[in-house]
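Repro:
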Amino acid sequence: MAEDSSRAFVKDVKRIVIKVGTAVVTRNDGRLALGRLGALCEQIKELNSQGFEIILVSSGAVGLGRQRLRYRKLVNSSFADLQKPQVELDGKACAAVGQNSLMALYDSLFSELDISSAQLLVTDSDFRDRDFRKQLNDTVKSLLSLKVIPIFNENDAVSTRKAPYEDSSGIFWDNDSLAALLALELKADLLVLLSDVDGLYSGPPSDPKSKLIHTYIKEKHQGEITFGDKSRMGRGGMTAKVKAAVNAAYAGIPVVITSGCTAENIIRVLQGQRIGTLFHRDAHLWEPTKEVGAREMAVAARDSSRRLQALSSQERKKILLDIADALEANENLITVENEADVAAAQQAGYEKSLISRLALKPGKVSSLAKSIRVLANMEDPIGRVLKKTQLADGLILEKTSSPLGVLLIVFESRPDALVQIASLAIRSGNGLLLKGGKEAKRSNAILHKVITEAIPDTVGGKVIGLVTSRDEIPDLLKLDDVIDLVIPRGSNKLVSQIKSSTKIPVLGHADGICHVYVDKSANMDMAKRIVLDAKIDYPAACNAMETLLVHKDLVQNGALNELIVDLRMQGVNLYGGPRASAFLNIPQAHSFHHEYNSLECTVEIVDDVAAAIDHIHQHGSAHTDCIITEDRETAEVFLHQVDSAAVFHNASTRFCDGARFGLGAEVGISTSRIHARGPVGVEGLLTTRWILKGSGQVVDGDKGVIYTHKDIPVDS
């Protein structure tokens, strides 16, 4: 899965261990970096007020103590003393002096923010005592309940470690490993290691060729990374951080290494932004699948589809039920990824109609799972005998239903389409290649992952391939020998481009210009309900009303005005044809052949049902059209003469939907006149095969048999 998807874990974070490196606490000259520390404390204050439990592990005491003792020694030295070789200061004395100064500074900064802090000094040997560890947990729990910030540091002043900068024996060996140990011991939800660089790089950060690694995958990166120098002030630098991060992550604590020198980085991590380098025990599962060529992907889908077809009906049914369960089990994760897509689309300034189709509204995942279960419990569509004929004595011909083969679906915006199409492909035994829009990248990735992981190895996840590169589409459209049908779901431009770019049959519709015609005999209360539903129930849908046609008699009796008032009260912007714009004093529509996909529609006045039918044929898209009338004869004329995929009488155009038709789900709505038309469910993804069962017959110039061509019951 894409690396972006890995940031969903922050949703459940409450307790956080933050480790501040020496390079963050101090400047290049060894003095305290007061600005950075102040900004850090302000972030901790904000997180504390939001209900997060913050535990701080701070380095810097030894470096700060050394700087102060050097200054004191310099002040107290004579000129002669300065000419002598300078002896390195005792590290434990530096730690004792520096710890006192460091805590005084933290206390001062937090006090200014009306926050209390507490100092906890520990040594490696302390953690060998079970009673100490229990008391440590109790103390920290008590402090956190009081909204006090516990600040930990290794007590280097009394540590029994012989050479703190080199001796890495013991339970922990520096403040990075101490932070990892505390995260595990105190059951933290997240460990943040702050450094003076943006995260883990593939090489030294100063090397222009080095790249920031957003998600660390041990199997991939362990042998590829070249570490630079160790920390200029601390013990181990990035090497120590990575070792600590790997240990914590594989024990179940997510870890982020990021810069402590950049404002609000901790807050940005908790907002799910791609900040720094993430370590997570499931990171290897997020590694993108090795890129394969278009033909290889299509061939793999065909091979897997044949294994799918070889399963029993019950086995295919179980796959669908498992997919439905998996979607519901991962609803929170799916929602997080979808919300990230929606936020990015809003920030990028996409049209509201696209954003509306992109969003998985509350309850949508459950609704999709329910539709899949309905589909699973339908009669198995594969291998059904549609017709049975006795050609001659002992020679039986069967016409049976059969999968098409491999489908290529290119769709924009709607991630729910991926779920519907994938479930239909499984039910119909077809292989599937999916190409979604970049605006739904994260939603599509997590949905594809959840679905394919529910497919057993006997079939293989490659039965549903997710095309991630736009460059692969032209190549796929050339593969008429391995792809059997292309179904584009999106704009007129998308559908037209695909139709002109491939020899593969294309099934779909370019526009959804749906009409509602209100006849002179209409029940106006019914008409108002239907017109409003057809327009405002889901304006971005392809089955929403785009043009309202009204019989001229309704102008005179005021019924048209009532409809217009109701539409305007719902926030619908109206445009008129030549007659309506003049009568209603509304702007004239620039074209009758226009799909708004929003709270807008065209209104026109027509003379009668014949004029309405002519208007629909001239300006419509043969999608879904409706008449509202109490006159049965007029209704029958409309129903039989309007040449659209779906034609309704006294019902909203919004009913044109696979799930509402009882198809379980739909792969799309087709306005084609060949193969499938209207909402395309399982039946639209099937073709036929001929099965001939004989007993040794030969043609022999048609002298070898006596033809009967007798229809016989399919269940015989």
